Amino acid sequence: KETKLWGGRFEESVTDIVEKFTESISFDKALYKHDIMGSKAHASMLAKQGMISTSDRDSILQGLHEIERQIEAGEFVWRTDREDVHMNIEAALTDMIGDPAKKLHTARSRNDQVLTDFRLWCRDAIDTIVESNIRLQVALVKLALKNEGLIVPGYTHLQRAQPVLLQHLLLAYVEQLERDAGRLLDCRVRLNFCPLGACALAGTGLPIDRFMTAEILEFTAPMRNSIDAVSDRDFVLEFLSANAITAIHLSRLGEEWVLWASEEFGFITPSDSVSTGSSIMPQKKNPDPMELVRGKSARVIGDLVTLLTLCKGLPLAYNRDLQEDKEPTFDSVKTIVGMLEVSAEFAQNITFNRERIQKALPAGHLDATTLADYLVHKAKGPTKFCSRSQIPFRTSHDIVGRAVALCVSKNCQLQDLSLDEMRSLSPVFDEDVYEYLGVENAVKKFCSYGSTGSACVASQLDFWVTKLGID
Ligand code: ARG
C-alpha cells in the first residue's frame, strides 16, 4: 500500500472498511476543475512571495494543466486509497513532476483548500441555475405572448374567484422566478470571499499573500477570520435555501399544470413530446414531467434539511462531518436545474384550449366582485365617494350576495337577472350594470396598478419582454 500524504506518524495503514467509509473521491472528484484553479493560484502566489522558485511554479502549473487534460479525456485514474480529490490530484502531480509538487501544499490545508474549491463550485453552479431560471422566464413570457386576451378563471381556495387574463397568471410565475434568481445572486455576493490561506484554522507564519490568491480566483476579498473561513457552511445553507424556495415555486407550477391537463379542467393540452403513457391503460397520456417537478421538489427540500441537520451543534472549526456537505449540494443543483429545464420545455409544448376555457367561464359567478364594486362606484354621486348616498362595500357585498343566491336558485348567471330583479335588491342598479357583467366586461373594469386589466397586464408584459430581451 502507498503511504498516505499524511502518513508520517502512522505505523499501520487504515483498514479497508475505514478507507471505504471515509473516502470522498467517489463524489468530490466533481470539484477537480476548481481544485486545480485553486492550486494554480496558490502556486503562483508562493512563487511571487519567494517561497518556491519560478521553475517549480512552472512545473506545477504545467503538471496541473496536464492532469486537467487527463481528467477531461477520461484518462485519469481516481484512487480510493488517495481519499479525496485534493490528495488524488496532489499525489498524481507528485508522480508526474516529482519534488516541486511536494512544495504545493506549503501554507495550505485541505480545510481551506476544500472550501476554496467548494465556494468556486457553488459560484459557477449559481450562474448555471440563474441561466436556466431565465430560460424558464422566457418560455413563460412567450407562452403569455401566444395567448393574448385569453381569460381564465382565477381561483382562491381552488374555488372560482374572479376572471383573470391568462397572461397575468403566467407572469405571476415569472415574478416568483425573478425573486428566486435574486436570492441566488445575493447569496453569490456573500459567498464570494476567499478562504484560501486560512490553512487548518489558525492561518500561517509563512509569508503568504491572501489578497493575491483571492484576486486571481476572482473573489471579492480574502475572508477576514481564518477560523470562520474553515468552519462556515452558511454559504451552502443559504444556497440550498434559495434552491428549496425555487423548488417550491416550481412544484406549485407543476401542480397547476397537472390539474389543468386533467379531463376535469381541460385547460391545457401538453403535446405528445412532453407526455408519457401507461403500461396497462392504452388511452393514457400523462403530464409526468410536471408531476416529477412537483415530486423532485422533495429532494431539494431534503438536501437543505440534510445540510441544516449536518451543521447543527458542530463546534468550530473544521470537522470531518462537513465532508457530508457535498452530495446534498450536488444533488440540489442537479435537481433544480433539471426542474427548471423541463418546466421550460413543458411551457414550450402546451396549448391552451380556448374553447374549453370559454365554455368554463360562465360558471362560478366570477363577475360578482365587479358587481359589488359597481354599486360602490355607482352610489358615490357624480364626484365624490363620501356623499351621503354612498353604499358601503359591506352593504354592496351583501346585496350582490343575495343576487348570487337568486342566480343559484334560478340556475342562471348574474347577467341573466332582469333589471327589475336587481332593483328589488337595491334601487341603485341601473341599465349600465350589464356593462359590468360577464367575464369580458368584468376584466375590462380592472385598472389598479398590477391588476388583471388588459392595459395593466400589457405594461407588465412589456416590462418582461424588454427585461428578458424577447423579440
Ligand atoms: N474530503 C474532506 C472534505 O470534503 C477534505 C478536508 C479533509 N480535512 C481533514 N483534515 N481530514 O471535507
TrEMBL record:
InterPro entries: Arg_succ_lyase_C, Argininosuccinate_lyase, Fumarase/histidase_N, Fumarate_lyase_CS, Fumarate_lyase_fam, Fumarate_lyase_N, L-Aspartase-like. Transmembrane segments: none annotated. It comes from the Eukaryota. Gene3D superfamilies: Fumarase/aspartase (C-terminal domain), Fumarase/aspartase (Central domain), Fumarase/aspartase (N-terminal domain). Residues 366-444 form the Argininosuccinate lyase C-terminal domain. Residues 8-302 form the Fumarate lyase N-terminal domain. NCBIfam families: argH. Belongs to the lyase 1 family. Argininosuccinate lyase subfamily. HAMAP family: Arg_succ_lyase. This is Argininosuccinate lyase. It comes from Xanthoceras sorbifolium.
